[in-house]
Amino acid sequence: MSEADPVILRPDLGDAGVAPSIDRPALPLGPEGLDRHTRRDLLKEEMAIAREFHGGRMWPYAVAAFGCFAVWLSFFPLGIMGQINLGLAFVLSCIFATGGYVTSHEAMHSNIGRPGEKTRWLNEAVGAVSTIPIVFPFSMARMMHLEHHYHCNDPVKDPDYTDEAPNALMAWYKTWYNRQPGVDGSIHHYKRILAEMGTPEAARALKETMLLQLVFMAVLFTMAWSGYAIEAALIWWLPRHIGLSYIRFYLSWAPHHPREGKTARYEQANIFKSRLGHVLSMGMETHLIHHLYPGIPNHRTRQAYLALKPILEKRGVDVSAI
Amino acid sequence: MQAAVKGLFHWMPLLFGIGFIAPLIAQVMVRFDVVPPLGITPLAFGLLVGAPWGLVTVIRGRWL
């Protein structure tokens, strides 16, 4: 009898008594080659480590959000009165527009104050002011971002899937292309998803989005026809576009590319090395940690990643970049 | 109301061309001492560029 021939253990059972000729593990293995007991133990260990990085001081996010918003607002009268260097105001406005998403993002996950906590109002206020420079109301931002987490990398249900592009250059182009009025990308895609949701929250988010966009247009038109078009362009219009492109590239494309088929827990985002570094890529190099544990604040994801790295490696995550 | 807002957003590129692009072009020309052709004013030149550009965007769905 050769090694490949089946071994009949119980002739009375017919085919059911045939032992497999090829050896198989006693417990089914996951895609990373771990049996379910190992996977469970690793998950427990992972959760225990992750718990250490939840929470922490969140007031700097609130200070940054309100401080930057106040300074940005002051640029309008200062610009109109000619009391500020417009080049400086432009650069700072770009930084505020982009960075505002980071503070708003913490609020989207209720990391500044959970429902029922004393700091809940602060959470909501931080979220509300942070994304005004990019004309993206908090209600819509939160709903769409949570949908992104629920259906990460799903081509139909992930609202951010339209950011996918084959390479970095195309990704930058797509950040602009998706904002074109006739293209179903970014905010247009969001509006369509909200309309399809049909919930009262979605209707409210849709209404707030339209309202904020109308206010934005009204401010631009009024300033422009009053002789301050350059000021309006440098303080709001251009920083908004630059901020949105930067956010789309670093917060959506870079950590999730390639998206196709990457819907499992440990493959929803990548660990990558950014040319601009950890801070300028807004902590996105270790974005996988955020998807695994959204309660870990942005400034602690890198530390959390380093602590979780051995476990992630066992899970089959490519941790070679950092 | 909803239909009116939807209509407003449909025509927004044209309004943007007139309401923002046109005065922006005019003010940039004045700032950099650029004289518009055929003796027209900077604002008229801005409108000649901004309004058709916005209208084309409404039709094509893209600014460029």
Could you walk me through the main structural features you see in this protein, from its secondary elements to its overall organization?
Chain A: Keywords: Membrane, Transmembrane, Transmembrane helix. Chain A: The chain crosses the membrane at residues 59-80, 86-104, 125-144, 214-238. Chain A: It comes from Novosphingobium kunmingense. The complex is a heterodimer of chains A (322) and B (64). Chain A contains 11 helices and 2 strands, in the order ββααααααααααα. The longest helix of chain A has 57 residues, at 200-256. Chain A has 322 residues and is mostly helical. In chain A, helix 7 packs antiparallel against helix 8. Chain A is elongated, with a radius of gyration of 25 Å. Chain A has a domain at 58-261. Helices cover 59% and strands 1% of the residues of chain A. The mean pLDDT of chain A is 91. Chain B has 64 residues and is an all-alpha fold. Chain B starts with a helix and ends with a helix. Chain B is elongated. Chain B has helices at residues 2-10, 12-31, 42-60. Chain B has one domain (2-60). Chains A and B meet through helix 8 of A and helix 1, helix 2 and helix 3 of B.
Labels describing this entry:
heterodimer; A: mainly alpha; two-stranded antiparallel sheet; elongated; B: 64 residues; 75% helix; Fatty_acid_desaturase (chain A)
Summary of the model, kept short:
With 322 residues, chain A is an all-alpha fold. Chain A has helices spanning 36-52, 59-80, 86-108, 120-130, 138-150, 168-177, 186-197, 200-256, 277-280, 287-292, 301-314; strands at 7-8, 18-19.
Fraction of residues in helix of chain B: over 70%
Instruction: Walk across the major sheet of chain A and give the strand order.
Output: 1-2
- Kindly state the number of beta strands of chain B: 0
Shape of chain A: elongated
Count up the helices of chain B: 3
How does the helix and strand content of chain A classify structurally?
mainly alpha
Q: Encode the helix/strand succession of chain B as letters.
A: HHH
Given helix and strand content, the structural type of chain B is mainly alpha
Radius of gyration of chain B: 14 Å
* Low-pLDDT residue intervals, each spanning 5 or more residues of chain B: none
Average residue-wise pLDDT of chain B: 95
How many DSSP helices of chain A?
A: 11
Oligomer: heterodimer
Distance between the termini of chain B: 31 Å
Q: How far apart are the first and last residues' alpha carbons of chain A, in Å?
A: 52 Å
Task: Supply Rg of chain A.
Answer: 25 Å
